[in-house]
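Justification of computing resources. Each target in the renewal requires a structure prediction run like the one illustrated here; the chain below, 229 residues long, is used simply to show the kind of job we budget for.
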Amino acid sequence: MQDTLEYVIGSRVQCAGDDCGEVAFVVVDPVADKLTHLVVRPDDSIDLARLVPVHIAVPGADGVELNCTRARFDEFEPASQTYFLPDAERLGVGAAGGERVLEWPLYGLVLSPTNIMGIAPGADPLPTTTVEHIPVGEVGVRRGERVHAADGEIGRVRGLVVLTPDSSVTHVLLDEGHLWGRKRVAIPIRDVTGIGADGVEVRLTKDQIKDLPPVDVAGLEAEPADTAG
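Resulting structure tokens:
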């Protein structure tokens, strides 16, 4: 029997006993149906969110424990990138490999809190935009995203259940407070037809989801709902 793990979006994260923040969202390979990364956001800044490989993250009753130090966590790839908007090209935007990159222009040798970004005191900030930075072909899944059954919206995403050791996604967990007041409803990944900007699309009807058996996260044995017809 394979063990299962439950990754709840919003869980607190520890790095070798030190607090690292919380799980902001998770990253999934929708073709392989595998969880690949957790995006962990420190409490002090959204800009420092990091892409953490799922194989070093173990969820538990008190949150998620990372098998690394805080210093190692800080070295993981950022989960977002900041770019100048097109109007700022003349102010220091370069290109590499056909992709726009950020080059902060510095207009003086003396840096202070008011001009450390290359902006003169009293001047308006340069226009920038921050975009999500996750592996190509993968998608982010956030808590609270809508889950759409075949006959309408059924609830919101709470997290994922995966199999060890390869982190294959088995179920999408619905958040508490949905239609039937049950505290745990999990939709089999084989019944998920898409994950995108509009949320999670499911082939099951609301009644079929209502009749799904509960999930035993310690050892998944529940039979899927009958989807015939």
